[in-house]
Amino acid sequence: MLTLFFLVLGLIIGSFLNVCITRIPEELSIVAPGSRCPRCKTPIRPFDNIPVVSWLVLRGKCRDCGLPISPMYPLVELLTGLVFAACYAEFGMGAELFKWLFFAGLVIVLTVTDLQVRMLPDAVNWPGFGIGLVFSAAVPPHDGTALWAVQMFAHRRVPEMAVGLLDGLLGAAFGSLLLWGTGRAYKALRGHEGMGLGDVKMMAMVGTFLGFRGTFLTILVGTFLGSVIGLGIVLTLYVAGWGRGLAERASRRGLGSVQSLRFYLASQYQLPLGTFLGIAALLVVFLSRHPLFYRIPGAH
Ligand SMILES: [Zn+2]
């Protein structure tokens, strides 16, 4: 019964996340005006604003102008609903559930804005970072790293809140530095920027919620997903003949063989790294509960 409640809550919150996803990158208010068709600007009637259902009833078209509405809207609502229900099933009722619902909302917005417009807005990263620090004190990540550091260097009892806050700060510092370093290494290898500062700030935010180990796991899983799917995209673009015309023209000017030029063009496709990191972060919320990761060194 409560799982169903959190599914429906997620669908409704997902509808609000859609507003954030479309408006924040354009620096528009997320409060006013109310939802409207992105094309003809007609305000959306309350009965056409039911998550997922309305999109299906209207068959993905605006009631007024008949132009298609992106399937991204119902997909974000459905994803949020499922993640909310899964969080309740995993964590039960309590402060920890509230923390992960908040985190899921932030991460879903970033995952989709990066996918759609290659942007990880500061208006999500910085407030998320602040909220994450508050949560790290109130609902500690139970990461064990801060506890270990305190036992190692402080030699006295430290309040649990302070340990939690330290876990959040360690996660943020480690996540952003590791990603920044990876970005420098990528640039040195490939000769162009592979990621922006948005990814670095996103990992600072993620770090405050997940702590040191969860953040490390997020970067491992995220970059792995990015490499595998990225390679898949490059090969698909190549096989599908993406950039063929441009490559043929460049080849006629003696810039190289058509084949190598086409591969070069496909490899220039800009991957949404933040999207992969976001997917990884959501997986880690559940994965880090696994006994393999959840054992806290020095705790009972
Ligand atoms: Zn319309």
Written account of the structure:
The chain has 300 residues and is an all-alpha fold. The protein folds into two domains: 1-88, no CATH class; 94-300, no CATH class. Helix content is 69%, strand content 0%. It has twelve helices and no strands. α8 packs antiparallel against α10. The longest helix is centred in the C-terminal third of the chain and has 43 residues, at 197-239. It is flat. The two termini are 34 Å apart. Bound molecules: zinc ion. Zinc ion is lined by residues 37, 39-40, 42, 62, 64-65, 67.
Radius of gyration over all CA atoms, rounded: 22 Å
Question: What is the count of structural domains?
Answer: 2
Largest sheet: none
User: How many E-type strands?
Assistant: 0
Q: Could you spell the SSE succession in H and E letters?
A: HHHHHHHHHHHH
Share of helix, binned: 55-70%
Low-confidence region ranges: none
Number of helices: 12
Q: Determine the N-to-C terminus distance.
A: 34 Å
* Shape descriptor: flat
Mean pLDDT: 88
Q: How much strand content do the residues show?
A: under 5%
What structural category characterises the helix and strand content? mainly alpha
Bound molecules: zinc ion
What's the arrangement of secondary structure elements?
Blueprint: H1 2-23, H2 53-57, H3 72-91, H4 95-117, H5 122-138, H6 145-153, H7 160-190, H8 197-239, H9 244-252, H10 258-267, H11 273-287, H12 291-294
Helix pairs in contact: 1-3, 1-4, 3-4, 4-5, 4-11, 5-7, 5-8, 6-7, 7-8, 8-10, 8-11, 9-10
The structure holds zinc ion.
Zinc ion (ZN) binds at residues 37, 39-40, 42, 62, 64-65, 67.
